[in-house]
Design goal:
Elements: H1 2-5, H2 21-32, H3 36-46
């Protein structure tokens, strides 16, 4: 749903190695120009759908 809401995201933005999921979230937050806390809120909101 993030790619639908933010079309400039691509598959590579969601790739991560085992144990590096937090790094992926930090990179996504940076690309979206939001804080990590805002990223958590966004993910929580999307889980409602």
């Amino acid at each position: 749903m993030l790619k639908w809401r933010f079309p400039y995201l691509n598959d590579a933005d969601f790739e991560f190695k085992e144990g590096e999921q937090e790094t992926m979230f930090q990179k996504l937050a940076a690309k979206l120009k939001i804080s990590r806390k805002a990223m958590d809120s966004l993910l929580a909101e999307l889980q409602l759908y």
